[in-house]
Amino acid sequence: MAEKENYLLTTKNVNLFYGKKQALFDINLSFPKNGITALIGPSGSGKTTYLRSLNRMHDLTPGVKVEGKFLFHNNDIYSDNFDLVDLRKRIGMVFQQPTPFPFSVYDNVAFGLRLGKKISKHQLDEDVEKALRQAGVWNEVKDRLGANALGLSGGQQQRVSVARVLATKPDILLLDEPTSALDPISSRVVEDSLLDLKKEYCLIIVTHNMQQAARISQTTAFFNDGRLIEVGKTREIFLNPKEEETQDYVSGKFG
Ligand SMILES: Nc1ncnc2c1ncn2[C@@H]1O[C@H](COP(=O)(O)OP(=O)(O)OP(=O)(O)O)[C@@H](O)[C@H]1O
Ligand SMILES: [Mg+2]
């Protein structure tokens, strides 16, 4: 099928258990090479759980069982021969709270690059600048690259966190409520930088903010009770959903 080849990441029949408690039920969802997919749904519906399964973050939590297929470039990321360090570079994660390390802005972005193969100072400078530009924060930090990243505003810290992930040249960015800890103005600035990235990257973003989902995503997936209720074009999901549950949620009846 031609359509299938356009997907960078395809998940099939995903079930996930925290001990005996099942948290995800038979999720089938695919992500195109470029663009933004929003994952929406009420608290506890499984959005974070699903997002974290996409780069094997649950590997670190004892008692979690993940089932299903996760095809990335047609390889299953859960197969034994998949290199985890490589996976986390190619599928990077940005968290809800900005998470800069307590070092300089420059070192925050250079961190992942220095873990890899040897790289010259000149190349490092170039890559750091490129990542900060892509994350839309270069102009604000270019004169304070040596300053501690913790001294930046929340919105700047979050864009530096995005730059840190971008520096390792991922294909996919996973973002779990990346603007929920920010004021509305900083949120919009972060949103704008995400919009710029969608041309080149596959972004998967969990958000509680419906306006945000509507503004930035092309595709929206609605989760409820660990199930994927509906997925489709963002416009359709918000204006003309097929399922009553989706309609109730997007119109603010619950969640
Ligand atoms: N480490 C864990 N151990 C046991 N249960 C968990 C764990 N993490 C999450 N859960 C449960 O799995 C379900 C889904 O949680 P998840 O965090 O994925 O929801 P969410 O949609 O991201 O919610 P929110 O919008 O509040 O962030 C919930 O019932 C939650 O209590
Ligand atoms: Mg969550």
Automatic annotation (TrEMBL):
PROSITE patterns: ABC_TRANSPORTER_1 (PS00211), ABC_TRANSPORTER_2 (PS50893)
CDD domains per record: ABC_PstB_phosphate_transporter
Database matches in SUPFAM superfamilies: P-loop containing nucleoside triphosphate hydrolases
GO molecular function per UniProt: ATP binding; ATP hydrolysis activity; phosphate transmembrane transporter activity
Keywords in alphabetical order: ATP-binding, Nucleotide-binding, Phosphate transport, Transport
GO terms under biological process: phosphate ion transmembrane transport
Annotated GO CC locations: membrane
Pfam families: ABC_tran (PF00005)
Domain ABC transporter: 9-250
Residue stretches spanning the membrane: none
UniProt entry tagged with the keyword Nucleotide-binding: yes
Protein name: ABC transporter domain-containing protein
Native source organism of the sequence: Oenococcus oeni AWRIB429
